[in-house]
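S.,

As promised, the NDP run. Input:
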Amino acid sequence: MKKIAILGISGSIGISAIEVIRKHNDEFEIVLATAHKNKTKLLELSEEFQIKNIVLTGSDNGNKVDKTNLPLKTKIHYGKNSLLELLNDGNFDVVLNAVSGSAGLEYSMEIAKTGKILALANKESLVMAGHLLEKEIEKSGTQIIPVDSEHSALFQAIGASPSKYIRKLHLTASGGPFRDLPLEKFPDITLKQTLKHPTWNMGAKVTIDSATMMNKGLEIIEAHWLFKMPYDSIDAIIHKQSIVHSLVEYCDGSIIAQLSSPTMKLPILYSFTYPERLESDLIKTNIFDLQDLTFHKIEPARYPLFFLANQVGKDGGLLPTIMNSVNEAAISLFLEKKIHFVQIHKLVKNYLSSVKNISEPNLETILTANRINFEKALKDYKQYI
Ligand code: NDP
Ligand code: MG
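Predicted complex:
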C-alpha cells in the first residue's frame, strides 16, 4: 500500500483524489489530510478513510473540533506549523499538494526537503519559487510529479527524451467561457458567467484564472521550472475540446501529445503510481468520440494577462510572486464584486509597473512580498484601476 498525504482534501482536486483512492483502496492509504476551514468535510473523510492525522490549517486556536466526533484512529492538529511538522516527519510516500494559491508554497518547500514524491497541483509554488524548489529537490533527490493536466501530459509525452531533442512545448488551453464572446461585450461580463467553465469543474481561483488566461501564463512559468526549458521554447494554443492536454514538438518535426477525456483523475492517478501505471477503468476515453480536434492562436486583445504573465516569467526574480499575489487580490475583489472582470488585468498591469524587481529572492523575501503586495493591492486597488 502506498501512503498518501493530501493537502487540500476538501477542494476540487482533493475530491478527485478521493475518487481515485476510493476506486483503488487496495493500492493507496490516506495517512494525512488537510482542509483550511471545511472541518465538516475533513471529519467526514477521516471517518471514511480512518486517516491517522488530519490538520485544519485555518484554525490555530478557536473553531476546534469536539474530539468525541473523531474516529478513534484519528489525531487532529491545527494550523500551518503543525502541518509543516507533520510534513517534516516524512511519514508518507507521496504528498499531493492541492492547496489553492500562494499558501501552497511553504508546504511544497517542506515536502521537497523530505525526499518523498511531491505530486504537485499547486502551480503557484513553482511560479513563486521555482529556483528554490529546484535546489531543494536536487539536494534531497526527490521528484516533482506534475498534476496540472497540461504538465502531466508533457511529462508523459517527454518520457525519457533528453531536452536537447525538444524544439517546443505546446500547452493547450480551453480558452475559458469567453473565447467566443465579442470583445465589446467584455465590460458586461458577470461573476456568474466567469465561474462557469465550459469543460472543467474547478475551484473558484483557477476557474477565474482560466477565464482571464492568467492560468495559462502561470502554467508557462510552471513548465519552465518543471522541464528546465527556456521561455522561447514554451507556448500555448487554444484547444477548446480539452482532449489533447499538451504536445511536445521534437527537433525532427515529430509531435507527441497526450490525449484523454478531461478529468483530473488521470493526472492524479499517474502521480500516485509513477513510474508505474495501474490498470483502471476510472478514466474512459473513447477514441471514436475524439472528433474535430481544433487548435488556434491566443488573441492578445482577449487574453492580455496571458501575455503579461509570459513577460513576467521571463523577467523572473521576485516579479512572478508579486504578479501572483496581486492577481490573488484582484480575484478576491472580483469575487466580492468590487472590481469588474476587465479590471483584473488593469490592476495587475498597473500595479506591476509601480514595483521594483529583485533577482534570486530567498524564501523569506518571497513570503513577505507575497503578503505585503496582496494586502496593498487589496487596500489601494482603486488607484490602479
Ligand atoms: P479549491 O479552491 O477547490 O480547493 C483548495 C483547497 O485548499 C481546499 O481544500 C481548501 O480548504 C484549501 N485551502 C484554501 N486556502 C488555504 C490556505 N490558506 N492554506 C491551506 N489550505 C488552503 O482549489 P482547486 O482544488 O481547484 O485547486 C487546488 C490547486 O490545484 C490550485 O493551485 C490550482 O491552480 C491547481 N489546479 C486545479 C485544477 C482543478 O481542476 N481544480 C486543475 C489544475 C491545477 P477549505 O476547503 O477548507 O477552504
Ligand atoms: Mg492546467
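The pocket of NDP (ligand 1) is lined by residues 8-14, 35-38, 57, 98-100, 103, 121-124, 148, 200, 202-203, 205-206, 264 (CB under 6 Å). The chain has three domains: 2-146, 148-264+282-309, 316-385.

- D.
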